[in-house]
Amino acid sequence: MNRRYRKTVIAANWKMNKLPGECKPFIQQLKDKAAEAKWCDVVLCVPFTHIASAVKAARGTRIAIGAQNCHYAQNGAFTGEVSCRMLSELGVKYVIIGHSERRQYFGETDTDVNRKLHAALEEGLRPIVCLGEKLEVKETGAALDFIRCQLKAALKDITVQQLRKIVIAYEPVWAIGTGKIATPQQADEAGEAIRDTLRALYGARAARGVSILYGGSLNESTAGGMFSMPDVDGGLIGGASLEAASLISIIDAADQ
Ligand code: PGA
After folding, report:
1. Is 50 known to be catalytic?
2. Contact between residue 114 and residue 150 where contact means Cβ atoms under 8 Å apart
3. Which CATH superfamily is domain 8-254 in?
4. How far is the CA of 238 from the centre of ligand 1 (A)?
5. Residue 63 · residue 30 · CB < 8 Å
6. What is the tens place of the pLDDT at every residue in 174-196?
7. Could you give the 3-state DSSP secondary structure of residue 13?
8. Is 99 a catalytic residue?
9. How far is it, in rounded angstroms, from Cα 109 to Cα 153?
């Protein structure tokens, strides 16, 4: 991480886990640590059904509530979908966009990701845009090219002012939920490739201000090594974010 230029962000991704009633006790356990953490923003991305309880429990704390997906339209005939305007009215501050599980199981394309990104920014939400290669791409040696392409497609027609609101998460698909974490060097190399691409698109000043997170089997024992890398500015954490104690240890590691 490089605190001179950018924020450290620890974002928990609960995925489809826990029940709405579990938000309050969880936030109670987390809130003192979030208040103490001088350097890092703490975000809890919960299922849609949990948002109202999570926002209520997080009021007056330094924990921001995020959603895990959104639709790109403001409203309309999209049965079962949730718009960014709805999220923002509930008090949501962040939204994960383009998570690999959305791409893999729900057919989300780079074009969808770009449309959602525009929609989120329009409603004042901070998008956490996910990028990452599958194992077969990694094995061909083309991982960095692949994520550069994903990034460019996601950022189509995004302005430099809008870029300031965006957080990027590098999440190699082979590392998500598998226990096979990338090495800090691999994560940093990807972070550097992402930042180089941002520099080419938006200039050095804008590029150095973007927080780039690592996600994929990150836990309390691997967080410290990961966060010591210059182009890893925090984490997007799935499995290890379901226990308040492990999330607290990860925040500690990020706040050193
Ligand atoms: P994981 O998930 O930490 O359980 O691997 C990370 C993510 O998918 O965001």
Report:
1. no
2. no
3. Aldolase class I (3.20.20.70)
4. 4
5. yes
6. 999 898 999 999 999 999 999 99
7. strand
8. yes
9. 10
Whole-number pLDDT of residue 236: 98
Q: Which residue has the tokens 């799935």?
A: 238
Of ligand 1's atoms, which has the minimum distance to the CA of residue 239? 4
Secondary structure percentages of the chain, helix, strand, coil, to 5: 50, 15, 35
Centre of ligand 1 from the C-alpha of residue 177, in Å: 5
Residue 17 Ramachandran class (φ > 0 left, ψ -120 to 50 alpha, else beta) = beta
Mutate to test the pocket of ligand 1, among 219, 237, 243, 249 (most ligand atoms within 8 A of CB): 237
pTM: 0.97
pLDDT of 256 > 90? The answer is no
What span, in angstroms and rounded, lies between the C-alpha atoms of 138 and 41? 31
Q: CA 72, CA 164: separation in Å to the nearest integer?
A: 20
Q: How many whole angstroms from 13 Cα to the centroid of ligand 1?
A: 7
Q: Which atom of ligand 1 is nearest to the CA of 130?
A: 9
pLDDT in the model for residue 133: 97
Give the mean pLDDT of 194-216: 98
Domain range list for the chain: 8-254
Closest residue to atom 1 of ligand 1, CA basis: 238
Whether 58 contacts 94, CB under 8 Å = no
User: What are the CA-CA distances from residue 254 to residues 25, 37, 129, 164 (Å)?
Assistant: 23, 9, 20, 21
